[in-house]
Amino acid sequence: MGVASAVNGRRTQDRKLNRCMLIARVLLVLAPVLLVGCAVPHIPSRIVYEDPVNYVRLEMDDEVLAEWPPTHHTHPFLIESGKIRAILTGMKVQEHRTLLQRRFLGESPVVPAFTEEEITLLSAQLAGALAEATYNERVTFYLSQPQTFARRIITTGGLYIHGTELHFLLGNWRIIYGIPAYGMIYDRRYPMRPTAAKGFDLLFQPADAVIPLNNSMLDGMFANAKDELVVDLTKLEPSEPVTFLLRLCAGRQTLCSRKPS
Q1: What is the pTM of this model?
Q2: Is 141 exposed, middle or buried (0-12, 13-18, 19+ CB in 10 A)?
Q3: Is 10:2 a contact under the CB 8 Å cutoff?
């Protein structure tokens, strides 16, 4: 009786082990499928400039509708690198403080959004990217400073031209990004999306060239109300003319044939 019980117990353990091994094999087979199903959607893009730590690229803007011309960007757009340099130099960042913080600490200092080295790199590359862009593309950039094997300081964002307006968004500004041990590395794939809560306001000088945006109260509470700027290019210094590439654009002949000032 004892021997029979032992044999039956051994058979039960063997069946459990076989069942577990079968489940493991099924999971191994399905793992690639599950990973593909959970993968983050790919954003179509093309590289304009890339080095080991930085890039400038063109990516599709899903908010542009081919059948609705008012959503089309004014691309390709020819603008001198000197004008881009002036625009980047005018970009400023200020640490976001609540009303209570400002009462006790005062206003935080306003500092340049980009270093001189970053401006030198971006001014030529962004100008070239705008000249290559199509009506449904936006220009994005990614700047990083490696600190360790798994940590880097990143500044990322994007821009596009709509009519005579430059739309500029700063997704991350000098954020310390920790590369995950496993999983998706988001900072390089999505330069216009923040990797952490934003704690800054994006400003521009001269201030009278900025077109005000309507933001919600929730954006203001989470410091997301001032991470995007719309700059009126017609209000910038005319010493370096802004020129549009000649192209066919139905219903927008006046804009396309505009002469440099």
Answers
A1: 0.72
A2: buried
A3: no
